[in-house]
Amino acid sequence: KAGVTQTPRYLIKTRGQQVTLSCSPISGHRSVSWYQQTPGQGLQFLFEYFSETQRNKGNFPGRFSGRQFSNSRSEMNVSTLELGDSALYLCASSYPRTSGRGSTGELFFGEGSRLTVL
Amino acid sequence: AQSVTQLGSHVSVSEGALVLLRCNYSSSVPPYLFWYVQYPNQGLQLLLKYTSAATLVKGINGFEAEFKKSETSFHLTKPSAHMSDAAEYFCAVTPSSNTGKLIFGQGTTLQVKP
Hints:
The complex is a heterodimer. By secondary structure, chain A is an all-beta fold. Chain A has strands spanning 5-7, 10-13, 19-24, 31-38, 42-50, 53-57, 64-68, 74-78, 87-94, 108-109, 113-117.
């Protein structure tokens, strides 16, 4: 079974640009969560999508947005990039509970997209 | 609000020695607790999880953790460290199994000396 796939793995942008990161979850997983990892702030939750709907949102500015498609693939977008947005962005997917609602909390992570903003 | 505190950002042990990584949590509701490991340039891998079924939880690679409600702790242990255990370890908490939102601790880097 293929794992969570994130693309691109590495990218370099300049301040003011925007970036789109992609995440393909494990087959059958319907919940996708995004996290930002930096040396100073650690791992911080960005948002979670389930069945194309945003279920939870972290404490990030509106420049950070995401969406989920009908095949559960997800993208996140960061507009007007700032130096502080340099980070490893991790996507995680999880399978739904037997009731079909949400995730079990056991997240399967991709290897991340490392964004450098110059 | 929930939070997690990992005591010690760096822990160094000798190969074959006991590994003890400390995690204390704060939660107003019965929590779900996790330990994840991250190897360099990789994502996070689940080591084990506590979901209230048993207080002593066994995970992969010989790791285990004990949930102690009275101490609000969920420390990770391994009887004998191996060189391949060198990595960064994260404790995480969530109030519900029905969410992909985890609150992570700051992480503990484990160094294993030969």
